[in-house]
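Example (one chain per record):
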Amino acid sequence: MKTKLKLGGTFTFEHIRDGKVIDVWEEDNLVVDEGLEYSLGVAFDGSTAPVTAWYVGLFTGNYTPTASDTAATFPAAANETTAQYSEGLRPAWVEAGVSSKTIGNTASTAVFTFVPASTFVYGSFLASDASKGGTSGILAAASRFSTVRTMLASDILNVSYSLSVAAA
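Predicted structure:
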């Protein structure tokens, strides 16, 4: 019997303006090669040290993530959002443990508070480097929005990410 493993995730977004939820949407993601190799290295090889903290980022470039993207190349290629939100670092992805072959941060979403008059956001990603624009660590996953989103000053974007594994 031959069973394949499928690893994939979904980003969920909640856009708040003036204290009111104005949009909620989901986007599937691409688990990039770097994230897949990291997963195998930690789970089966044992020679890869586990990452103890992950972070959510956004990007403003009209860019479609590819399997070959890495933490070293992605922030520049996708034009990572850095000065457009007030948090000092990429917001932490605070997961709540594994349940039913899924892990996610739905109980503690990553929060982005926008500061400029308007910012066009094209997508999101999950990486192990907390620094805005940081290029070290591991890029696990990235997602391009199906429609570009406009964030105004004081808008809040709550981001959750759930990663699931299944036999395919």
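Caption: The chain has one domain: 8-162.
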